[in-house]
Amino acid sequence: MPLRFAERAEEAYSFPLTIGHLLDAALTTSADQEIVYRDQLRFTYRELRRRIGRLASLLTGLGADEGMTIGVMDWDSHRYLEAYFAIPMMGAVLQTVNVRLSPQQVAYTLNHASAEILLVHHDFFPLVDAILPALPKVKAVVAIMDGTDGPLPAYAKGEYEALSAAASPDYPFRDFDENAIATTFYTTGTTGNPKGVAFSHRQLVLHTLACNAPFGVTRQRGLGIEDVYMPLTPMFHVHAWGVPYIATMLGLKQVYPGRYEPGMLLKLRAQEGVSFSHCVPTILQMLLAGAGQTGADLSGWFMIIGGSALTPALYLEARRHGMELVAGYGMSETAPTLSIARRRRGGEASPEADAAALTMAGVPVPLVSVRIVGEGMADIPADGRSRGELVVRAPWLTQGYTGDAEASQALWRGGWLHTQDVASLDPQGHIQIRDRLKDVVKTGGEWICSLTIEELLAGVKGVAEVAVIGVPDARWGERPIAVAVARAGAAPTLAGFNAPLEEAVEAGMISRYALLDRLELVDAMPKTSVGKIDKKALRARFAAPSESKVTMTVKA
User: Fold this and answer.
1) Mean pLDDT of 70-84
2) How confident is the model at residue 64, as a pLDDT?
3) By mean pLDDT, which of 79-83, 214-218, 364-368, 428-432 is the weakest?
4) Catalytic residue flag (residue 301)
5) What architecture is domain 13-201?
6) Which of 96, 109, 184, 187 is catalytic?
7) Among this protein's residues, is 416 annotated catalytic?
């Protein structure tokens, strides 16, 4: 039997790993550090702690209690940061509502989570107007006017700032079980309703600590006390990748941009000295385009890129603007971080080598175990080439989908969380995501990885965005096609798209089955609620043969 403390002091403090304790050191070391909201408001960490107390007091006055779910519908703001702390600290559950879902899906998630109080930004009043009759469990709504004039909705109990100002900052927070649920949100899949995931205080504290650690082993500049942090990932999406918790724990200056507007983001970057952010590739492309138009200086801006693949071409474009980039990998079910990219040990030093290494999924962060498995959960060799499904373990992974035992069992089949990503692992621990299981194109007996083809096509001249999908084919089962958005004035051709693929075929990188026999140009890519290209929508749109299809004979 393991030994335990034999002489534990009667008054020794049993320190629970709860979110409130992430504030402790920051309030000692950084009480006068600033938190900034757009160009409208700035206050100190000392005042942040008071605002957290006020929010908890006003929610209690509206009937909030331990275990109750409280939904937030807001842009990236200081209010969201306050909710990240106040709601879990009072023993309630924070639901970060994905405002980009359809009204029906938003209503479903609120009902499924049993949300009883909502904090709602005025931009989402029309949404709430439409769905509130279908939310019988909601008993109070707090309006966030965000400095605008105008009447409150009839259903609102009051305005956020006014109610906060009238509430006590001295809320009597108490300790409780670190395994209590702290947050919940909903992840969208390819079919059916969104699935609910939940995370405990202990899980989020461990995620915060582990995700502050990996830069010591990545040779990358990390997130440190001299940095100025601004999120560019929605705070409703997987805790903004957990970085607000890290930034607050460290006592950093934080800048919250509200709704993402390129001009405002670049203005805040310059005025506030923002040095650390994270975003999906589409936001990075938006910033690069904005800087190209305005001449904004992006040099020294460090970004973690995730959500979808960071291509070497986009990496090199950002580097030409003086930015520092590194890819990260995770998913909604993993809170989200699993790995961060790093340079290879003993490899060549060049921009191209960096682009190859730092756009991979990376190496596992501390406390993450990974395997690449095939049929029957058999391990695949870690040789950097062999491919299988990536399965993981870590102390912060969701333990299942709320109210969905069958999906939960599939998620944790064999005692490992199944990512549904096809990946390879090399001897140095570098993970390379090859594709989603559902996005692999099966053609002529060959498995074609769409991400590999997309990387090769990303550098084609005149292409702004590109996606590769599989569509039904009577002869081959499936064929890969490219869907692209052209840059202004450009006219990409099928021959131009196949040129880099033919070179890759000659080099033995890909099979001839990966050559394209169809190119579809679109004005804009359909996107999911978190900014990823919606391949499900593309497959539905282009499943039928195109009249403009160019036929190519595929040689076995």
Assistant:
1) 98
2) 98
3) 214-218
4) no
5) 3-Layer(aba) Sandwich (3.40)
6) 187
7) no
